[in-house]
Amino acid sequence: MILALVVGVVAGIGAVARYVVDQVVSHRYPSTWPWGTFVINVTGSFVLGLVTGLATHHGLSTNASVVLGTGFAGGYTTWSTLMLEATTFADDGHHIHATITVATSLVAGLTAAAIGLSLALI
Amino acid sequence: MTSPLGREPFRDPDIDPETEAQRAAPWPRLPISHVAVVFGGGIVGGLARYGISRGWPTPGSGFPASILVINTAGSFVLAVLVTVLAMRAAPAYLRPLLGTGFCGAFTTFSSVVTASDLLLAHGHIGIAIGYLAASVAAGLVAAYLGMALAGRVLGESS
């Protein structure tokens, strides 16, 4: 019960971090390309990979990995925004943009999470 | 059918667009009221995802069905929300509360790629590819249906 509340609050902190990063990225680099979501999802995937690796290989406790992984990384990264952005591109006729934003996010996210997982092996 | 979202969906001008001075400032405005509602929506979204994934856990090296359902449902809800807010006057806090906060924290990208990496590392290549493909296909269909249904319902009632 306490754990669930902590996970929820930390997910809220992750959501605020996402809001701040997205605002800063779109303010510094105004673009119709959704760079904010890309940066958020790739960095958050690295965090979850690292937390998962530390839990598997370095004895990070289950509670800590749930709070940091399910709570923070889960609240920070977002699937719904990526899908909305891709669908909006497609709806505007930019099917190639839609494909590129999903494909680059997945490739970079898979790579970032793999780097996080691998770092925990050191 | 024209886009219900208009041409520039990613600037998210909301209700009060930036002034020249705010655009030139090194840091964006981060209204505390928006931060607060993002935090509140994020807590509820994170709790909902945690509760569902606890009650419907993924067996070791299994197909993460609960996260797939969560991400698909969240993509549908966000698309409905954004379409409704683009077509109807609504309080400025609804987008950050329900979109950025709830839907953003309810759905998760990091879990999809990390689970896929682990499936790949354990040799379950078919499950990993199937999970990624299903997540993308279901998410895109859900977002499209959300936009189309909300647009049609509001278009008929206006």
Q: What does this protein structure show overall?
A:
The complex is a heterodimer of chains A (122) and B (158). Chain A has 122 residues and is mainly α. Chain A contains five helices and no strands. Chain A has helices at residues 2-28, 35-57, 62-76, 80-91, 95-119. The radius of gyration of chain A is 16 Å and the shape is globular. The model of chain A has no long low-confidence stretch (mean pLDDT 96). Chain B is globular, with a radius of gyration of 18 Å. Chain B has helices spanning 20-24, 32-55, 65-87, 94-106, 110-121, 125-157. Chain B starts with 19 loop residues before the first helix and ends with a helix. In chain B, helix 2 runs parallel beside helix 4. In chain B, 70% of the residues lie in helices and 0% in strands. Mean pLDDT of chain B is 89; it is low at 1-15. Chain B is an all-alpha fold.
- How many helix segments of chain B? 6
Q: Runs of chain B with pLDDT <50, length 5+?
A: 1-15
Question: Which radius of gyration of chain B do the C-alpha atoms yield?
Answer: 18 Å
Rg of chain A, Å, rounded:
16 Å
Oligomer: heterodimer
Low-confidence runs of chain A: none
Quick check: average pLDDT of chain B? 89
Identify the notable features of this structure and list them briefly.
heterodimer, A: 122 residues, mainly alpha, 5 helices, 84% helix, 0% strand, B: 158 residues, 6 helices, globular, disordered N terminus
Secondary structure elements and pairings:
The complex is a heterodimer of chains A (122) and B (158).
Chain A: H1 2-28, H2 35-57, H3 62-76, H4 80-91, H5 95-119
Helix pairs in contact in A: 1-2, 1-3, 2-3, 2-5, 4-5
Chain B: H1 20-24, H2 32-55, H3 65-87, H4 94-106, H5 110-121, H6 125-157
How would you briefly describe this protein structure?
The complex is a heterodimer of chains A (122) and B (158). Chain A has 5 helices and no strands.
